[in-house]
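Mods, move this if it's the wrong board.
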Amino acid sequence: MMRFSALVFLLLAGCAQWPATLPPISPATFPVSEKGQDIALYALGLIDTGYRYGGKNPEAGLDCSGMVSHVFGQAAGIKLAGSAADIARSGRPIELAQLRPGDLVFFNTRRKPYSHVGIYIGGGRFVHAPNSNGKVRAESLQHGYFAARLEAARSYF
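Not the wrong board. Structure tokens:
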């Protein structure tokens, strides 16, 4: 009986999905840039802005790619346009351990690569415009729904 219980435990443990964790980020190796800091601060200023599918400005509401395009344009003068997948194609791939404030993080939320995007703000957190709860908010990369769906990071400066 003990062998059977142990076998069942091992089989179930093999199917479990552990939350994603970020490797330690060393500020000495990857210093924060002024543009990145401006982007992160501007994104934080949009928290509680309403969500709207296809939204590209805070007054009308923002979706994830519209928020990123708006923030990058206003805070850094960087033009990014299109869907989250379009934005992902134009960035420089970086390892998660290299994330700095202002970099973008991409998620597979609709069973499609790069279907959601957020702005990394430091401390393992990102700002995004999810369609649930209807408002721009900050989340942890290491916990919950998005941890299991994090797929890539990109830098644009």
